[in-house]
Amino acid sequence: MAGPVVLAGHAYAGAVIGSTAAQNVRALVYVAALAPDEGETVGEVFGRGTPHPNAPALTPNERGFIWLPDEAFPNAFAPLATADEQALLRAVQRPISVACIAAPVGRPLWKDRPTWYLLAEQDRMIPAENQRFMAERMSASVRAHDVDHTPLVTAPDVVAELLLEVVGQVERTRAA
């Protein structure tokens, strides 16, 4: 992709955007996302702190993949979503491989790029305290909102507002 890029990642995808090496990435946006530091694993940062009482027990199946149990969607993953939205999220979920969350990451891009963090204060999957720790460690510009783990579904205006803010900042920096 040519031109300046703003990468955004939700949940596990935070580790993905932090691991990119693309030179044209100008900024990173974490949306209730995991942000491991160099040498850490996704599993370590996900398990940091005390889990929410409604957080599901996540165990791999016989093939080494982790699926969210059905009750996780209304109880933890998307409690502010409608029943129809929860059913859709449940239907389209993809598992994560234990190998993906057990591998230490290299130097994260957030050490070299401006970073923003949408902190989901009602998150039951990645507690707000854990999100705040990661955001502060990254020196991210934090936007805390009273949203659950899935603001892309339950508060899309909040996510869009942040993305537009970041793109505007990148454009202003580029024009200067």
From TrEMBL:
Residues of the signal peptide: none
Pfam family, one: Abhydrolase_6
Protein name per Swiss-Prot or TrEMBL: Pimeloyl-ACP methyl ester carboxylesterase
GO molecular function: catalytic activity
Coiled-coil ranges (or none): none
Domain AB hydrolase-1: 3-161
